[in-house]
Amino acid sequence: MSESNTSERPGTSYYERHIFFCLNERHSGEDSCAQHRAQEGFDRCKQQIKAAGLSGPCQVRVNKAGCLDRCAAGPVAVVYPEAVWYSYVDAHDIDEIVESHLKNGQVVQRLLVPSHIGR
Predict the structure, then answer these.
(1) Cα–Cα nearest to 49, from 82, 95, 16
(2) Left if phi > 0, otherwise alpha if psi is -120 to 50, otherwise beta: which for 53?
(3) What pTM, to 2 d.p., does this model score?
């Protein structure tokens, strides 16, 4: 992680990386991320980021999101500023995203959502 202070870099992000987890639940019977244990993925990521000492300014922020409109790949999460979209299955996948991407800046290729997959 960068050790620089964002206040020294005008116009830069408050966080080095920001990951959003879709936790949307549709009650209409349509598929949604919430039906695929998205909350568990969010909780695991938040726990791993805190345990690794990566939370806070100039580091990583883990956030809940409503529908990200990529339901067909669900559950999904997106990392900014890189705009990298992930689909995950279990705690191992989340741990790999945290260690590889959020901590070390290396995209986890095997978990990428293909660009053509949407709702």
Answers:
(1) 95
(2) left
(3) 0.87
